[in-house]
Every structure is written in structure tokens, then in C-alpha cells.
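Consider the following input, taken from an annotated entry for GTP cyclohydrolase-2 (Streptomyces tauricus).
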Amino acid sequence: MTEIDGVLAGKAQPSGAERVVTSPLPTVYGDFQAVGYLDRTRGDEQVALVYGDIRAARGEGILTRLHSECLTGDAFGSRHCECGPQLTTALREIAAEGRGVLIYLRGHEGRGIGLLAKLQAMKLQAEGLDTVEANLALGLPVDARDYGVGADILHDLGVRSVRLLSNNPRKREALVRNGIRVDAQVPLLIPPCDDNITYLRTKRERLDHDLPHLDAVVGHRV
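Applying the prediction step yields:
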């Protein structure tokens, strides 16, 4: 029985997430346990990467990242967004902490509109629309993500409260709404570049992301 299996043994399954498998996952950031889930509501396959012994903290104040799937940023290194650097930074910070959880939320591509629609929206952004305007021009929601399955997974892992690695207040609100206490919101601020500064400013101005480091960047349109 693994450490994570010991945490989960005998626990009732959450309503939206069915735990399927736990496997060791050595990475360049450290040795994680990958806990695989099936989202029974949407049919998506989800994974939580757990580092260290979360039992030692009794599930309280666990450093946690809910990371929305972003193929272009996470896998291809796109500079259009900051998703890839946020993912790697979160994994490093969790490993440095000695314990923590990163939940990789599939089905969240393009804030929930899907890969092809996201590429269409990126094309419109290259033509001058911002990320909000582009989604609306396609007749799509600005943000269609649901974090309920992330909260279900945290419940299943025995996590009661988190220090949330995020700049997005909606993630905090969603966790609280689903019974996970958020002790603190830990900034995950990635230095902007010429390719994403407009996108990031739109996230701050129109999506309420907390990105105070952008104030120091001049010479770009909002």
C-alpha cells in the first residue's frame, strides 16, 4: 500500500470523481504520486500529483495548484500565455515545500471552450481583439471552467484547507463554495513578455486576476 493509498483507504468516493489508480511518478521536479480519477459528470480523465506526506499536516494548509489544461502553453511552450511557466513553477514550489498537491484539470482548454475554439480565438487576438472579445465574437462563454471536480479530488485526498497557488479569485471562490477552506492565496506571478503582456493585462482588467507585477511594465497597450 502506498502512502496515498493509506490516506484514501476506506474513504467514500466523492460524487463527481472516481479514483482509479495511484502510481509513482518521478519527475525532474521531484518524486510525486500520480492519482488518476474519472470525472463521472463530464467523462474527463483527471490527475492529481501529490508530493510528500499530506497526512503529516492532517490535510490542513496544503500548498495546492488547480492547473487548467493548456496544450499550447504546457506542452509547446507558447508565449501567448503564462500557463507553461506557471505549471513548472508550481511543481517546483510544491516540491520545495516538501508536500503539496497539483491537480491538472483536463477539459479546461481555452478556459473551457476546447482546443480548436481556443486556436480560433487566438487568431482573432492576433487580428486585434482581446481574449474576452475573441471568445464572445465566436459566440462562446468568456470562461466556461468548473472547478467542482478539483474540490472533489481534494476531498478524496483528505485535504481540508489549502494555500492556493493562483492569481484567479474564481478558483478560491469555487473551492470555498465546494467545502474546501482557502487559508491563503499564494501569488504565481510570471514575468511577462512582449507576446503576452496584452493578454495578461486583459486578464487583470477584465477577468479580475491579481497581477500587480504588470504595473512595472510600460510601453504596451492594455
